[in-house]
Queue: 2 jobs
Job 1
Amino acid sequence: MSTKVQPLTATSAVAPATSLSNEEILRYSRHLIMPEVGMEGQLKLKKAKVLLIGTGGLGAPLGLYLAAAGVGRLGLVDFDVVDFTNLQRQIAFGTADVGKSKAQAARARLSDLNPDIQIEAFETQLTSANALELFKDFDIIVDGTDNFPTRYLVNDACILLGKPNVYGSIFRFEGQITVFGMPDGPCYRCLYPEPPPPGLVPSCAEGGVLGVLPGIVGSIQAMETIKLILGRGDSLVGRLLLFDALGMKFRELKLRKNPNCPMCGEHRTINKLIDYYEFCGVRGEEAPGPNVQVPEIAPKELKARLDRGDDLYILDVREPHEYQICNLNGHLIPLGELPRRVHELDSSREIVAHCRSGKRSAEAVDFLRKAGFRKTLNLKGGILAWSDEVDPTVPKY
Amino acid sequence: MAVKVMIPTPLRVYAGKRDSAEFTAATVGEALGHLTAQFGDLRKHLFTEDGKLRSFVNVYVNDEDIRYLAKENTPTKDGDTISIVPSIAGGSLLACCC
């Protein structure tokens, strides 16, 4: 079921006359010659104020297309700095931007694309303390974040302020897009009342993302934002668009407003922003430390013992494709297979288990010790620490 | 009734990397039961210890959310597609565990 959306900008006779310069008319000529946009539509875009939460994988194509389209005011919220590994998908940045503030680098790139619009960089982390203040001056919020606590924060702030929230999310090669926060439409909590607890989310070995995936999903978010501003087409309000990049299939599911939703339902019980990290069962922004405490060996100590000729059995609990990137010549048993392949190990030998950063191998050591392998140690910091402290020729990933 | 269960990316690793599986089932609950019987590792990702569907996992029959139908008792007919749609949020370290 589709929803025709009312345009957001005022159309009353007393609306201030914003006009387009000759240069703008030329810049946007391909919009202006379409009856669906025309001068009226382009003026709506010029008067629109859109806030982008996140300038990374989703935010990059989003920001680029909204700037190209002539959205008059763009806000970019990102507290992070550009990392080398971002360049695989965060196409608003160049190699020279590594180390710079993402919000500033994105602003520079978007300003280059379109110097006629107003672009503000907010180099701040979005929190319950600042979200309402940040959002109130914008018409539409676009959620391009990468974690659950912020998703719930953005949702709740939008509902409290009555702002649409153009939502997009990705995982590896799958995406979801919809529009929350419209009158009579659902909100994020209608779809997912609760976040997954951290322990149940797939691990890094099954993570990663096809770089172009957020490019597609972010572009769809830009399209939905522009349609909301223009009041044209059928919005994704009440529709959850699922995208499977590998199968190249789009599917659509009905997204209903939950009448009992504590946020947007008939009887709201949440009237202010909460502690979203607590809600999602995560404390603070740091990556969670290892869940288990097990005996460890530092990379330098392992190196010293191997050089001495100690009889150590190196067990690598990563995935086969990681082994191909780099390895310590260890015996590979992926963590998930360890329980059924434990017979391949000799409990009389001293085993040093490692993974990429030391977390999965800590779980392996914990499992093995409980299974009777008393002489098992975890390589502290994993192969990343080995590269840092012992052998820099080992690539990090 | 022959139904197809679509398995979302984050859960495929627990289902032998398959993106779908077909079963004969009269209700959604029965289909999910067959699914977790065949792929035991999926169970804890879909259900709590007391057998309830996890709140961050939504299930649809064709394009309708079962919470607005008869939940796990929603009847299924030949050719229906059951979709499992978990909450996803991309890959920050907070969502990752290594």
Note: The interface with chain A takes residues 8-10, 13, 19, 44-45, 54-56, 58, 60, 63-65, 67-68, 83, 85-98 of chain B (CB under 8 Å).
Job 2
Amino acid sequence: MDIPKVISKKPFVLGLLFVILILMATSPLYATRYTVILLTSIFMYVVLTVSWTVFSGPTGYVSLAPAAFFGAGVYTSALLGFVLPLPAVIIMGGLSSSCLALVVGALTLRLRGIYFVMFTFGLVELLLHFVLWWEVNITGTTGRVVPTVGNTMVYYLMLTILVIVILIAYLIKRSRFGLALQSIGECEEAAAHTGVHVTALKITTFAVSAFFMGAAGAIMATRWTYIDPRIAFNPILSFLPVLMAIFGGMGQLYGPVIGAAIFTYLEEFLITRFPYYYMLIFGIIMVIAILYLPEGLVGLTQKLWNRIWGAKHGDP
Amino acid sequence: MAILEGNGVTKYFGGLAAVSNVDFHVEQGEVVGLIGPNGAGKTTLFNLISAALRLKSGTIKFRGIDITGFKPYRICRMGVARTFQTVKIFPNMLVLQNVILGSYFGMSPRISSSDAPKKASEILEFVGLSRVSATPARDLTLANQKRLEVARALATHPDLLLLDEIMAGLNPTEVAEAMELVVRIREKGISIIMIEHVMKAIMKLCDRIMVLHHGQKLAEGTPQAIATSEKVIKVYLGERAHAGS
Amino acid sequence: MIVTLLDIVIAGLLMGGIYALIAVGLSLQYGVARVLNIAHGEFIMLGAFITWSLYTIFGIIPLVSLAISSPVVFTIGFILYRTLFTRLRTSSPSPAVFEGKSMLACFGLLFIIQNVAILLWGAEIKGYSYLAFPVDFWGAKFAANRLITLGFAIVFGSVFYLFLARTRMGKAIRAAAQDPVAAGLMGVNISWVLAVCFGLGALMAGLGGTLISMSYQIQPTMGLEYTMIALIVLVLGGLGSIPGSFIGGFLLGLVGSIVTYLQPGLSLVAYYVLFMLLLLAKPTGILGR
């Protein structure tokens, strides 16, 4: 049986995805509470990583802001949690992040990429300081309570957002806009002269990617029940999606998914045994990935795959 | 009517006038040559027309509409397309994808997703790149990459095409093929401005030539007039015999 | 009223001196070595903690301990460039790709250095007291250590300026900043010069950290905020301009002082507002090219 041919057939892939989806959808019925919580975390990181890749992958504009958008969603949940029903809160969380992204994009995406990187780098700390000041001086609260929602509900909400973001990422990639985003990353000037409204496309895509990060934040807030600025705005949540995307590989859609799954599980595993070492290890992996894994794990696997199977088909 | 008109076009880089008070025009259907020594401001002028750079002063009108201050994508959709002196293709995209981007975004009104691949294939056929349509652009020869840039520009359905040294770095056979392509583009009714150092091509293809020197317009006229102009010869062309061939 | 204004101005200059120092360090790393070192603040933190350790454990006074901490931080920066960034530079197909990759590598370094510091020194806030007595300065009182900090920043800035302007190495650095390839062709040992620049940038960060530790409390997570400030000063002064970073540092210090007087806790927000205004009006900054 010619294995590469079977695996690349569309029905096979679709069937596989369908089976995985059914498994994910039904797991709360038979899996342990711990597994459900772990899976929810994995889903969250997959959402963050895939959303990040939607914009920063093809365009090459590295956003260091995921934590800021996630935090915006968390805070929206805290502010509106007792006022609106949960689905509305999640959408508002996404929208508030998108608005933030529109402002950031309008300011920086007309200019060279370096300004975008610098601005997004400090965004999470900026929001932290601002919200902290606001809570101390204006509202008088430090920390807020978020209405609780059961673990299973959080699981399904996160799974829903996951499915939506992967679908959107896939549709964008296949569309003319996906091609345009790639052209921006390859040669922005030529793209502009080929009729692509580069600034508008960058800002819009950035806002779309931020929506899902905010929605994820709004959902996770309900699991934490109590949040304060330091919990909501955590720089590590900017680092991890970038690490996962780079390690997983940004060429294919499943690269970030695999990267997110691996690192979430690693984090779970290491945080209990080596609580102070795990971020250090992640930092080292990041540097190693940049040095030796330019295409990520997916790229490496593809190269190995071609080496094993390519020869059979007479490829050089 | 002049399809393109420039009046008093000026651009400074720091204290240096790269383009200084240049007037120019292109009539519908013309092929205009733009020549001058290196650093004369030719590519800068293209950059000003296509809005890659902003004018310091002066106006540029396309089809009678003042396009000064428009963004590049808008000018492209209005009908002005260009190639670049340093080839700016999308290296990791397939040849077909490079061209189809032009079909998707450069055409006004918008083209449907089903029509675009067809149009792109037609253009690849027209420039002679059908054979390599599924190759990544980075794997093409220089001559073919330049051809691809032209194809991508054509995909945006331009009325005016700016060609920036498409023959630089080509061997004589490739130059002849490029010249033949320019003729075919012209036959489609597209007006052309071409920057070239290959004198043979300029003399043969152009209806009119404009000479720039130190950012200013030095001379303008038919190939014959330019070839025999004292000013131009002194500054640029060298031997009369050279210019004639 | 006048005393208050002087208070604010001098407080701004005191902080500005530190900002100027760390910004010039980052400017060397980005403007010359082309590395956007977002881990810059971690080197500041290292300088602070090494100084703290040398003082509290061995009793070596902070300004003297610079003789130890400066070479250490310089060497770390130098080695990092010679190994990690040189490797990235040679394997990157274009300068733009190198800038992107080196920035991401610094992102990784940020978490490496920060967590090494937590492992070595613990995550709690630390501090020490040195020369904390007040000094009368035109009617306003300032802590001696802060005045020394300012004096030091100015002295160091001047020494560095002379270094760049008068010495061979300084000229080599300026040449490399303008055009590394041409400089290399002129006989400048480019990989050496770039590594020295990166090391010097790290040294200045460490220096800034030492000065900060003299007047403020420190903790392993202190770096991020200083990196942000250095980045904003870089934009304010103009990307690629070292004198711009020096002046910009003092300007930002003044802004911070004014804002802290009006509304404490909002200084970082104010810096970002300034950042946004720059992006809207003049991204090239005051001395940018």
Note: The mean pLDDT of chain C is 90.
